[in-house]
Amino acid sequence: MKFSGKNVLVTGASRGIGAEIAKVLAGYGLKVWINYRSNAEAADKIKEEIEANGGEAAVIGFDVSDEKAFVEGIKTIIDSDGELSYLVNNAGITKDKLAIRMSVEDFEDVIKANLTSAFIGCREALKAMSKKRFGCVVNISSIVGETGNAGQVNYSASKGGMITMTKSFALEGAARGIRFNCITPGFIATDMTKELKEDIKKAYIEKIPLRRFGDPKEVAEAVAFLLSDHSSYITGEIIKVNGGMYM
Questions:
Q1: Which of 92, 151, 210, 231 suits a disulfide with 114, CB 3.0-4.6 Å?
Q2: pLDDT tens string 230-240
Q3: Is residue 1 part of a domain?
Q4: What CATH code is carried by the domain that includes residue 65?
Q5: List 28, 155, 204, 246, catalytic entry
Q6: Does the annotation count 155 as an active-site position?
C-alpha cells in the first residue's frame, strides 16, 4: 500500500488488536509510535519485533484519558519527527455488568477511557495535521457500538458515540484535507476471546456467517487501507470487520 505520510501513533498498541495494527503499519514502511498505559515491557517487545523485521518504531507511554498527557505525547512525536501523519485511536477498557448493577462511576470510567480519549486524540490530530493540510485518523469502535449488547451499556455507549463523533470530525476536517474513518470489529481472536469456554465460543461462531472469529491482522489491514492513499476519497465512513455478523 502507498502512504504519503511517514509516521503513525497507535494508542493501546502493547497488546491485542493494537499491537497487530502497529506491526502491520510498520511493515508498510511507517514509523510507528507504540502507545501504552502501564505495560512498558509488552510495548518494548512489540518495538523489538518490528525492528527485527526491518521496521521503525518508538515507544511512548501515557494514559490516553489524561488530556494533558495526550497533548504532551503528540507534542513529543511532532518534536521528534516534525509531524504526525496518522493516528489510530485503539485504546479502551471494559467494565461489564448488567445496567441495574452498574454504577455511574463504572459508566463514566468507560466513557472517559474509550470516547473522551478518542475525542482528545481526534482534536489534537486535527490541530497538528491542519498545518500541513494532510493526515488521517482511524477510530477503532466495535460491533456493539452499532448493535448494543446486554451487560455492556457503558461500552456500547462509548463505541456508539465514537461512530457519530468520527462523522462529525470528518465534516470538520474535510476542508483541511484531514480524513476521519471508523472500524467496527466483531469477534476477533485475541487473549480475551481465548479465555472463553468452548461452548460459548461455539454459540458466538454460529451467529457469524463466515463461521469463525476474525484475525487481528484482518482488522489491521483494514486500518492500513483507510490510512493509505488508496482510500483518499473516503472519509466519515464506518467499515465493518465482523464476518457478516452485523450487516
A1: 92
A2: 999 999 999 99
A3: no
A4: 3.40.50.720
A5: 155
A6: yes
Task: Tell me the DSSP string of 153-187.
Answer: HHHHHHHHHHHHHHHHHHHHHGGGTEEEEEEEE-S
Does the residue 247 lie in any domain? Answer: no
> In total, how many domains does the chain have?
1
Q: Please enumerate in sequence order all residues whose Cβ is within 8 A of that of 218, keeping only pairs 6 or more positions apart, or say none.
A: 188, 241
Instruction: Residue 182: name the closest of 114, 81, 83, 131 by CA.
Output: 114
Is position 83 within any domain?
yes
- What's the rounded Cα separation, in Å, for the pair 115 and 122? 10
Q: Which position has the grid cell 452499532?
A: 146
Is there a domain that residue 15 lies in?
A: yes
